[in-house]
Design brief:
Layout (H helix, E strand, L loop, with lengths): L1 E4 L6 E4 L2 H9 L4 H13 L3 H4 L7 E4 L2 E6 L8 E4 L2 H13 L13 H19 L9 H14 L4 H8 L4 H7 L6 H8 L6
Antiparallel strand pairs: 1-2, 3-4, 4-5
Helix pairs in contact: 1-2, 2-6
Length: 194
């Protein structure tokens, strides 16, 4: 886990390793909470976008399975890659729903998502005896998604397109400030004396 101070406000920015992401995804006591976290950390959705997802947003395209975000920040449309396991979860929840086109996440406020992540991070801080978990926010999941793509050398302009950033500078300033721990370990391995 990498933690740094925010430049312009109290609190910390957090970059989770893949193992830490999995710990977080294993913590919630409901599939709905896990899906909400996955939409942020596996698709790069903002909290408000997580609340609007329906199974009708799943697209099969020439680029692979995508999740459409019809009204992202600034009411901008975008499409972002959708992992196959998450696609199946969305479809399963939709099949069990009473109404076609119903949102996957039943709560209607971003405060509910903040409460869910608070519950998970407090549990993990207690279980691991690592207070840094208390800094993790829903937005850190989006940050992890973006920096994970960058660390895997995905074209930054494609990351901007998938994440809904209008310019590369915003992405680089706010999301790519730290590489995920796996990328740092890989780079350390290139230096004999580290």
């Amino acid at each position: 886990m990498n933690v740094v101070d925010h430049d312009d406000r109290d609190g910390k920015k957090v970059w989770l390793s893949e193992n830490e992401v999995q710990q977080l995804l294993d913590t919630p006591n409901s599939m709905e909470r896990t899906i909400a976290f996955e939409l942020a950390v596996r698709c790069g959705l903002r909290s408000a976008e997580v609340l609007k997802v329906t199974a009708n947003d799943v697209l099969e395209t020439d680029a692979g399975d995508m999740l459409k975000v019809p009204e992202g920040k600034g009411d901008k449309y975008r499409e972002t890659p959708l992992p196959s396991t998450l696609k199946r979860q969305l479809q399963t929840v939709d099949e069990m729903a009473e109404d076609d086109g119903q949102t996957i996440i039943s709560v209607g406020t971003t405060q509910s998502l903040r409460n869910w992540i608070k519950d998970a991070r407090e549990t993990l801080a207690d279980e691991t005896d690592d207070d840094r978990w208390n800094e993790v926010s829903m937005h850190d999941l989006r940050r992890r998604w973006a920096s994970g793509l960058a660390s895997s050398e995905v074209d930054p302009l494609i990351v901007c397109q998938w994440g809904g950033w209008s310019d590369l500078e915003t992405f680089l300033d706010h999301y790519n400030g730290k590489y995920k721990p796996e990328a740092q370990k890989r780079e350390r391995g290139k230096v004999d004396w580290l």
